[in-house]
Amino acid sequence: MNLGRVEEAISFVRSVRHPLSEVSTVDRVLCPPFTVLAALADILRPTQISLGAQTMHWADQGAYTGEISPSMLAALCSYVILGHSERRTGRVAYPPGMAPSPVEGDEAVNRKVHAALLHGLSPIICVGEELEQKKAGLTDDFVAGQVRAALEGLSARQAETCIVAYEPIWAIGTGEAATPVDVNRMVRIAIRGAIGDMFGEPVAQKVRVQYGGSVTADNIGAFMAMPEIDGALVGGASLSQAFVDLVRVAGASG
């Protein structure tokens, strides 16, 4: 919920549009709030920089007050983030204890993945464990289960077009990033392992897998050097000129 006013979003994107366009060795996707998607779509149309939405509903229309449908996004976006940890845990609505918060579970994420693909949107599917699960040694099974649930019912061809973003919840916004070696292992064992079980190893190798969680220009190079990590889902570092530096490092690492 940042840079959501049209004038500030336009100003920021104009300031990064040219330097980001120069880094053609990586795909660059900006995922701003719904309120500025239309304005930014016009600005970015002449470039190779893509737009994505931060979430969506699975229904095309209906009595879902406040929701955004895939058909509304299809003309503006190429990507959509699904199952972000803030939505899965309910932190998107209210602080703990203030009011009941909705939890976006595996079934909802799966329905959204199917709807996104139906409308030509590439889903960026977020998976990741809480600190308690990590301490209990449950990370591999938990993350693999999220991957299987999200991709349930897809064809191999559809699965290939999905992107999986591994974002351990304990690392998001804390400054405590997971180590590149640990992330590389998680991607290979839990994420690509689950995809391989469902669709075969060739599909598992085609699916792009990102890391998200306190990614910065200082550490992105180490993550990109890992053979199983294909990119990053960037949070706070995407809100300033530091994002250009991060993309440049990622491009040089690739």
Q: Which structural traits does this protein have?
A:
TIM Barrel; seven-stranded parallel sheet; alpha/beta; about 250 residues
Quick synopsis:
The chain is an alpha/beta fold and 254 residues long. The protein contains 12 helices and 7 strands.
Describe this structure in words.
The longest helix is centred in the last third of the chain and has 20 residues, at 180-199. Helix content is 44%, strand content 10%. The protein is an alpha/beta fold and 254 residues long.
How would a textbook summarize the main sheet?
A: 7 strands, parallel
Give the overall shape: globular
pLDDT under 50 segments (min length 5)? none
What is the β-strand count?
7
Q: Can you name the CATH architecture?
A: Alpha-Beta Barrel
CATH superfamily: Aldolase class I
* Whole-number count of domains: 1
Q: How helix-rich are the residues, as a percent range?
A: 40-55%
Indicate the mean pLDDT: 94
Rg from C-alpha positions?
A: 17 Å
Instruction: Name the CATH class.
Output: Alpha Beta
Judged by helices, strands and strand pairing, the structural class is alpha/beta
For the record, give the distance between the C-alpha atoms at the N and C termini, rounded to a whole number.
Answer: 30 Å
Strand order, largest beta sheet: 1-2-3-4-5-6-7
- Could you tell me the strand content as a percent range? 5-15%
